[in-house]
DNA sequence: CTGAAAGCGCTTACAG
DNA sequence: CTGAAAGCGCTTACAG
């Protein structure tokens, strides 16, 4: 399991000390920029460090100091741009304080997640940021992580435990998106894509329902269309919107991938998104601005969320007395072309 | 710089030993599944480990054994899907052998790259996988990394040093793509997008030129169009293809992002990609299959490259006597709709 | 099969 | 301002 390094003798503090006739303690103090060391001594030590190509062994230092300068990040999979952006944000924020990111991925498997957590915890990270796999068991996670390492759970609900939570405001995001379409005159609005059993999908559907009820529009069951959250699936299912008359004139999509797929599926059926049909996505992935028609969407800014998660976990590391909190990140509606112009109540555009 | 962990006493090997009346050595042997320990003793120890919620301190073990169970991965930025996929592949392969990924990102800055490397090397990784930032200095990197940690350089050329190289076969990939368009009957073929000073762009242009020369077609300077390698820029520059008559009928694109942008730019000018104009991308990002028309492209399979890089570095870790090699990963043409049907030499389709 | 002892590379009181 | 000594949590010969 372990990699065996060529046990070539590395140059150590003691080598530096011998090299310039001081003790290890002095070298250590120089390394820590302590003001206790005489300038001349300091200069001699520093020169010797360069001369011998000494490299500091942070693991040894951490062991002795009982500290840690790493944070573990456990996500689903980096090939999902949402998580990749989140990870980039985490790494960026940790990097600025000289902390390193230990990466682990679960591939949405609970068993793998437990194994990954159990492995990462052995590296004694200062904290853990976890995007839990679907179906995660909070109690099991608590048991593995233990009480001494601050944990932050991102993005997915987990039956409450003693950890920080950073959640997206799915409910209000979907409500805002729906209200946007209502304000443009749409009445028959579908919620397209996603799996009912995913908590984020459930929350988004609830926000959508809330807005529809508030507008006095009874929900039609055929307006709720499930798909796997991928572009391809969404493109294939586009037809499901039009099996009954009167068909919806607009849709809130579970996420941008689904929305982009729906745009393709609509085009393949001769309908022009943003003209014959209005849609709003979720996430604001880079492509949303670049596609044609550009995609109106609810921005989640995963990179900023990553920075936020890292800062929160660092705060808890620095002061373990802080108690865990629940933070809800707001989401912003970005209006682009795909939601189209205002229409009249028959579902036609004002000309 | 360092995070200070609440110095709460952690349960240690000695606690377990005391807890069941054996020595630390015995507990250590149990942890390593050594056959030297009596079954009954082993069972007692294991029970005690669970009872006390002991967690192994891998850093301490690594220090004592002079081993490492981490590999550092330094990339540009995770928000680039190509690198995100590569990182996912690296992490996947490392995970299966119980090795952890230390992440670092350069944001394409040489200064930051040097700082990140200097920081990561202090964690004594067993090896380093580096996707060098543009303009990297091989000598500086050698100096920072030192001679004892195997290094693998991915994707970008770096003046030769004592490291493994995993390169993409840009030249042949571009040649293959160009030959595909030539075989369809195209003669006026552009090379669209990318920056001339990037080594991968240069190599791809060379492959393209080679195929054109081999077909006896003199290159027109106006067929070489530079853009930043983004979708938006590419969409904006689409017009540059048509400033002079006769305009090209096809283009090799620097990468898929550029190709997708060009598709949008063409559509905005009333030209139908795959009908009025043929194009081939580079990378085979997931979107290439899902866009409309679907994108013909040269597949680089970054995830497989990541696995390959990880396996290579692990091999060197296990046997430091192996000398560094240069591996060129082959690239595969994937034919989809965007390169269109065969045309006649006037640039019209066969009907 | 088990235990006492030394040591991985660092830091930190404590004396001087 | 500098040095001798103990110790972070583990492993590994070496005896028994």
Automatic annotation (TrEMBL), chains A, B:
Organism: Pseudolysobacter antarcticus
Protein name in UniProt: LacI family DNA-binding transcriptional regulator
InterPro entries: HTH_LacI, LacI/GalR-like_sensor, Lambda_DNA-bd_dom_sf, Peripla_BP_I
Entry-linked PROSITE patterns: HTH_LACI_2 (PS50932)
Coiled coil: none
The HTH lacI-type domain, residue ranges: 11-65
Keywords: DNA-binding, Repressor, Transcription, Transcription regulation
Highest taxon in the source lineage: Bacteria
GO MF, any single term: DNA-binding transcription factor activity
Pfam families, alphabetized: LacI, Peripla_BP_3
